């Protein structure tokens, strides 16, 4: 896993200005609110917000954009230099794009846009090309297109040549309706409004959305098409697998939608470069977007904020029921095809030091540790009518919060053989008190040349849930 990626962000810069105040009366001149000025501030918008998010998520960012030759370009340069170490700013005789938002009581009631499209001449393109090809050790390129004139077909051709020569992916957040300019990029992330503009289909019908995405992806050779759907989440098409992934958005109270799409895209590419797992990266991107809309104004989201969100959220996202979630489990396991998967099972009725020691030893030998947890009905069959003491929901919760286990699958059967055959783990773990021929699933593992490992456990007389319960 890469801890820090070198990412080149190229795109249209927008300076966001926020004018805040209180409204206590309506103007006598016209039926409009009178804003009593309180304060104003500026923040990085557009491609600048993408770059800002990537910096806060622990990446080395190289930012390339075009600014005007006006007062607002000076403010923009200062903001950029304070946040991003490697800025490549090209000046043109034009206005710097400015979006002024007027807010009262933390709610926006008016936006004023001042912009002038970039006219990228041959000389400017030559200088940009020279700068791009001078860069070394770049891991990915993010194109933030806001249809302000910078992201043109000639510039995209330059970017593609550089990416191809260095074997790195290109991620595009598009606004240009001419999709052929994005042919052969690796990732594209439009929203539903964009998709409706470039197709003539009724996008109120889900099958039509999927048809449009698949058609575009195949026609323009785009391996990953990520359609963002706002509060409904996202729909991702993987061309190689001819498969769709549906990811839900986090349900939170929305304060401001400014820059949520930038946060989603930057967070996705951040985590994808680090773990190569599409589904996990999409989930984390939705988390970051949810955190962004809870803030007032354009705001970047750090990795620490994302981690804290998941730390305090009930970890039900990684808990499945074998009888009712087989498809979800199968999809989740596909994200871990390249990882060494370990499996063990048990009732874990009252968690004690023996359990924790055993699980830690298991985790050291694999990358992904899955627990097959006996359901309440299964525990009753095995241990008796007065068990379990703790129900399956809270047993799952306790196990997940040990921060050792990656997935929990609750099963109803008396033994885990069916689950082991379904998962096909690389390693099957069991306690050292079991003889090899007593371990359920050992024969299956041996047949497929997979390992069964007996873990030395702590003294069973001292550490046993059943013994603890008898004492109680």
Characterize the structure shown.
The protein has 472 residues and is α/β, with parallel strands linked by helices. The chain has two domains: 6-313, Ribokinase (UDP-N-acetylmuramoyl-L-alanine:D-glutamate ligase, 3-Layer(aba) Sandwich), CATH 3.40.1190; 317-471, 3-Layer(aba) Sandwich (Rossmann fold). The protein is 36% helix and 25% strand. It is built from 16 helices and 19 strands. The protein has helices at residues 47-56, 71-83, 122-134, 153-166, 192-198, 206-219, 260-275, 278-293, 303-312, 326-334, 353-364, 376-383, 392-400, 417-423, 442-447, 465-471; strands at 6-11, 13-26, 33-46, 60-67, 86-91, 98-104, 107-114, 140-144, 170-173, 187-188, 224-228, 234-238, 243-247, 319-321, 341-346, 368-374, 407-411, 427-431, 451-455. Strands 5-4-1-8-9-10-11-12-13 form a nine-stranded mixed beta sheet, with helices on both faces. A six-stranded parallel beta sheet has the order 14-17-16-15-18-19, sandwiched between helices. Strands 3-2-6-7 form a four-stranded mixed beta sheet. Helix 7 (260-275) packs antiparallel against helix 8. The longest helix has 16 residues, at 260-275. The protein is elongated, with a radius of gyration of 27 Å. The mean pLDDT is 88.
Shape from CA axes? elongated
Top CATH class of the largest domain:
Alpha Beta
The separation of the N and C termini measures 46 Å
- Residue runs with pLDDT of under 50 for 5 or more positions: none
Overall mean pLDDT: 88
Reading side by side through the largest sheet, how are the strands ordered?
A: 5-4-1-8-9-10-11-12-13
Any idea what the CATH architecture of the largest domain is?
Answer: 3-Layer(aba) Sandwich
CATH topology of the largest domain: UDP-N-acetylmuramoyl-L-alanine:D-glutamate ligase
Alpha-beta classification: alpha/beta
Number of strands: 19
- Biggest sheet overview: 9 strands, mixed
- Using the CA coordinates, give the radius of gyration: 27 Å
State the domain count.
Answer: 2
Residue fraction in strands: 25-35%
